Amino acid sequence: MFTSQGPTLRELATQALSSVEQGYDLLAPKFDATPFRTPEPWLHAVTKALRPLGPFDDGLDLCTGTGAGLRTLLPLCRRRVTGVDFSAGMLEVARTVAARTHPVTGPPAVDWVRADAMALPFREGYDLAVSFGAFGHFLPDDRPRLFARVRQSLRPGGVLAFPLAAPLSASTSAWWAASGFDAAMRLRNALRRPPFVMYYRTWPYSAVRGDLLRAGFAERLVPLDDFGHRPDGTPRAALLVARKL
Predict the structure, then answer these.
(1) Cis peptide leading into 52, omega within 30 of 0?
(2) Which residues does the UniProt record annotate as the domain Methyltransferase (predicted)?
(3) What is the pTM of this model?
C-alpha cells in the first residue's frame, strides 16, 4: 500500500505522463514508499532458491531501481555485485540507501552502472544476473534482444534468474485489475508520446521460455515454497532459472 511518505496522486499522474526514464527519475526519491518496490519476502525466497546453485563470484542486478535486488546478491556473491539501471535518479537513491543500510567493508564490492538493459556494456563479466519486477517495461518484441544482451554479459554457464507468480485466474479481482491497468496503459500510449511502457500481462511463461531457448539458455522452474501452493498443488510462485549454454 502507499504510505504518507509516498508519492501523491498528482505526482503519480505526472510520472505516468512522462517517458519511462523521466518518470522514474521523478519517482525515485519516494519509490521505496510505494508498493512497486520488491517486498522483502520475495528477495529472501529468491536468495534461498539460488543458494544451492552457487557459489557465484560476480552478480548483476538488472534494472536495479533503488537497489532492492542487491539484498539477494550480497549473500550469494564472493567478489562483486553490480546494480544497473538507466534512471540516474533511481541509481542515486540506490547508492544512498546502500551506503546507509549495507556498508561494505570487504567483498563483495558494490558498484553501480547507468545503462539501458537493451544495450548492456558487459561481456562475460558475471556468473549470476537477477531482476525483480522490471520486465513489464519490455514489450514482447524486446525479449530476444534483451535476453541476447544478458547472455552476452554472463560467463559460460552463468545464470539469469527472476521470480514469476502463477498465472492469475480470470475469476479473481487481481486478474481484472492487471487487465484494466494494461488497457489503460495501451490507451495512454496510443494518445501520448513518448510512451510509458509498463504492462502486467505481457510475459507469459510459455512465450518467455521460448525466447530464452532461442537466445541460447536452458531453463527450468524452481518452486518458491515460501508462498505456498494453489488448490491444484502447483506453486503460487517459482524462480525461473536460465543457464547460459
Answers:
(1) no
(2) 60-158
(3) 0.91
Q: List domains and CATH numbers for the chain.
A: 1-36 (no CATH), 38-167+204-244 (3.40.50.150)
